[in-house]
Amino acid sequence: MNETTAIERLRDGHLDALELLVRRYCLRGVRAAYLIVGDRSLAEDVVQTKFVELAVKIRQFDASREFSPWFLRSVVNAAINAAKRGSRIVSLEDVQELRLPAMDSWLARIEPGPEIALENKEMHEDVMRALELLTPMQRAAIICRYYLELDAQEMTESLDISRSSVKWRLHSARRRLRALLRRYAPSPADAGSRPPMRSDEE
Amino acid sequence: MEQQTFKKILQMHVETAIPDDHDPWPIIHGRLMPGHQTAAGAEERVPLSRNRKTVKRLSTLALCISLLLLVFLAWTPTGRALARSVIRFFQTTDQNSYPVPAEFASSASQLAEPSTPVPTSVAAIVSSAGEMECDPDRGQGTLMCEIRLLEDQLGFPIQVLPLQAAELVVEKLDPDPNSQSLTIYYTNPYSLSVSLRQGLGDFPPDDTFDRVPPDGVRAVRIAGSPGEIVRGMFVQWAGEDQMEWWPSAPILRLRWSDGQRWYEMGRFGTPEFSPVLDEAELIWMAEHLELGSSMADSSEDAGSPTTAQLAESQAGIDVKIPVLVPDGFHFRYAQVPDEAGRVMLVYSTHADPGPRGFMVINETREGSDARWFGTAKVTHVTVGQTDASYVAGYNRGGESPYSPAELLAWSADGLDFEILHFTTAEDGYNMRLRPEGVVAVAESLR
Q1: For testing the chain B interface, which of A24, A135, A171, A201 should be mutated: the one with the most B CBs within 10 Å?
Q2: What per-residue confidence (pLDDT) applies to B122?
Q3: Which of A27, A143, A198 sits opposite B22 (nearest CB)?
Q4: Topology adopted by domain B117-141+306-446
Q5: Which pLDDT value is given to residue B254?
Q6: How far is A110 from chain B (nearest CA, A)?
Q7: Is residue A202 part of a domain?
Q8: Between B10, B165, B278, which is nearest A146 by CB?
Q9: Quick one: which H or E segment has residue B65?
């Protein structure tokens, strides 16, 4: 059974047809949602709910469109809403901790072990914490671009906002990430002679 | 950090958190089929359909009650009075349009009056040493210094917006001694303006323009506190003599109170960018205000950032500050770069808004902005060893309450400079500099 057949069967009320769509898109959806909401069970709940809704509302899906972007769009939007509902207040200490070497990572430096792996682990943790400090919309823009690898047009459709908003959100999210992850920035020589705060990448 | 590294980190993180063997099908199947046995080891979840009938009945009941309440509030006099008392922050008006108030018309005609002839007089220039430092006597200087001094004056800790979240730069701090409040103006590279106003006690009364039709106000929650949001405003269209409610104006206003202090955030954008910083993001920022005085302590830089430094870092040029300024003029703020990358340093006689004496120093990369003096008579002078153009009585077009400006323009060290010096009748015009004074200010730029 292929995807088109599965959708047709689902429209006819055969719930077993949903299994193919779940097995094909659930993992990607849960991972994208997890990167936005930052909580595994919440991400799973978001995606499971979307599949349950899909089974109920499959007739609303325009079969002439591609299923994957349509479904991921609904997952991303549901994840943004879930993140907004559950957004916690980020304390100043959180930000400071990220900017300054944390005590535990400093202690970890004197532990034996491959230094590079440690550096990577630190960078990994800092990236994920920096991501948490973005607004849900900014985080979604980053995930759509760098995890789901959507282009500007697809992001416009996925996030259901104008192209200028996509551009602005991506730009502001990148700038904030850049500021939070300054310690990993390339050296001035790598950056060339570009003005420090200007970005025309978008 | 390279994009590839960033992508790899995201990939690794998410693959560790949600492994490939993640199989949600049994759970989803279970949620679709009430009573269905979930797979062994699968997480127990409540099927959606359980209690659905009860939920549906309760929802219908709630909807009916809401509708009845809405009818009561909108169509009965008692209801409307009650609705007004419930609306706590924005003052409402029943009118969707009204004649332009007299005070507005008179102030507009005042602005349109030709400027008074300017007597020639002499003003001294003085050292500006200390202008950029935290000097309580002068009351101006660094952004952090200004915030701390204002905190002393206003008697409450000043809250600021989380700057990084929305790529905002502080443009101006505008205290209002009458209402004991402060407005902070921000801007960003997309010509979006955001303001944050705050004060103690109750909201000051709205003037006519700030009022809102009752259906334009919507209740929101800001970190658990009650608030209201409004899109739209009363505007006077060109050629009209009525103020008219424009519901789709690219303006959002958010008001709330945390019990002790009231706040108002405004977002003003061009229609093209009106989706930027939407309602949800505005609320997010309102929920994440930071203490202004702690910004200095948490700053990554050793010193406090000044508006001039912020503007400088945005423009990517070394902004030069005058050592000498006209007597009675104080540094107020640096405006962030405009499209031409121009940094504007603003000095004025008074901190209050309104027509006052100004000295404006524009600095931009050489050749970024074409100079045009119109039909004005240009005198050639020198700033140090550099040729410069001086225009006495320069007028950039349009009527204004300001005197025609003294304008000095020259280029040096890869930058184009302009000094514009205005005075007003209110200042008595006795603060006007002579050409030598303007040149002396120019030569003192360091």
Answers
A1: A135
A2: 43
A3: A27
A4: Phosphorylase Kinase; domain 1 (3.30.200)
A5: 94
A6: 24
A7: no
A8: B10
A9: helix B52-75
Task: Identify all chain B residues contacting A145, using CB atoms and an 8 Å cutoff.
Answer: none
Chain B residues in contact with A147 by the CB 8 A cut-off are 7, 10-11, 14
Q: What is the pLDDT of residues B88-119, one digit of tens each?
A: 677 777 777 777 766 555 444 333 333 333 33
Residues of each domain in chain B carrying CATH 3.40.1000 = 95-113+143-300
The alpha carbon of residue B419 is apart from the nearest alpha carbon of chain A, in Å, by 25
Average pLDDT in the A152-175 region?
74
Q: Is the ipTM of this complex over 0.85?
A: no
Residue A159's DSSP bridge partners are none
- What pTM, to 2 d.p., does this model score? 0.41
Question: For the residues of B247-299, what is the DSSP string, one character each?
Answer: TT-SEEEEEEE-SSEEEEEEEE--GGGTTSS-HHHHHHHHHT-EEHHHHHHH-
From chain A, the residues in CB contact with B291 under 8 A are 92
Task: Count Cβ atoms below 10 Å from residue A6 Cβ, excluding itself.
Answer: 20
Q: Please name the amino acid found at residue A53.
A: E
The shortest CB-CB distance from B314 to any of A127, A186, A197 is to A197
The CATH number of the domain holding residue A75 is 1.10.1740.10
**pLDDT at residue B198 tops 50:** yes
Mean pLDDT of A41-59: 86
B275-291 pLDDT per residue, tens:
567 788 888 888 888 88
pLDDT the model gives residue A106: 30
